[in-house]
Amino acid sequence: MTTQLGLPDDIQACLFDLDGVVTRTAVVHAAAWKETFDAFLRERDGAGFRPFTDADYDEYVDGRPRADGVRSFLHSRGVDLPEGDPDDPPGAPTVNGVGNRKNVLLLEKIHTDGVEAYEGTLRYIDAVRAAGLRTAIVSSSANTADVLRSIDAERLFDVRIDGVVARERNLPGKPRPDTFLAAARDLGVPASRAAVFEDALAGMDAGRLGGFGYVVGVDRVGQTDALYAHGADRVVEDLAELGGHA
Ligand SMILES: O=P(O)(O)OC[C@H]1O[C@@H](O)[C@H](O)[C@@H](O)[C@@H]1O
Fold it and tell me: Phi/psi at 174 (nearest 5 deg)?
């Protein structure tokens, strides 16, 4: 282990998830999803509908690309919608329509409340870069560039693989490892020499399946055991615990 960064000595690159690792936006996504799915279920099943829960978010939605989240959660409730088109009106009964509704709500919330970063993460990334390691942001979110710009954090990452890039390159999203592998490749570092930092169970699966050198689970919601079960080498509540202090 390096004493400074809390990583194995041979790690040359760090691949960071965005929502819940760099920014406090995992809860904003979760709230937008809950509003979207509860409205959908209420309309379908009436007032006695079974609401979307935190456990549903963790299992079916967190960390996955938008459309995969729609399909995966609704399938768990026995609903399989047609795909529709990317420009379906928000709330239309299609995978795209439901996803578009969620995006409208997400952007409203971000616009109203702003985006906050985790200071411990920003300090850790500074230390990682000062130590000469390369960095990437790897997120399923198609809003990654805007969110990073809003906290002036684009400069912290040498490479960005997000929901937009994944679509362009036809990369399957988390829990598949392809987006993390693409980031490591773009950085010129083998997966075995790259560390993954993730808060979502789907992201842990991606880290494990990709054969990465080290996988750090970031527990913001009390799911340490689940993060270990999904493949974390170490779980922290804040990246400051790993070290990297000036
Ligand atoms: O809808 P977006 O911004 O493209 O984000 C896709 C997904 O991005 C992930 O980072 C979030 O954990 C999910 O909740 C979200 O659904």
Answer: -55, 140
52-72 tens-digit pLDDT: 999 999 999 999 999 999 999
CATH class of 13-25+116-242: alpha beta
Residue type, position 19, single letter: D
Within 13 Å and on the Cβ side, how many CA atoms surround 38?
14
| Interface predicted TM-score (ipTM) of this complex, two decimals | 0.98
- Closest atom, ligand 1, to C-alpha of 62: 12
Q: Is 19 labeled as catalytic in the residue annotation? A: yes
Q: Which of 120, 174, 219, 15 is nearest to 227 (CA)?
A: 219
- Lining ligand 1 with CB less than 6 A are 18-19, 26, 29, 61-63, 65-66, 69, 103, 139-143, 163, 200
Active-site residue identified among 10, 19, 205, 219: 19
Are the CB atoms for 4 and 131 separated by under 8 Å? yes
Domain boundaries, the chain: 13-25+116-242, 27-113
**pLDDT(13) > 90:** yes
Q: What is the pLDDT of residues 162-210, one digit of tens each?
A: 999 999 999 999 999 999 999 999 999 999 999 999 999 999 999 999 9
Residue nearest to atom 5 of ligand 1 (CA): 141
Is residue 17 part of the annotated active site? The answer reads yes
pTM reported for the whole predicted model: 0.96
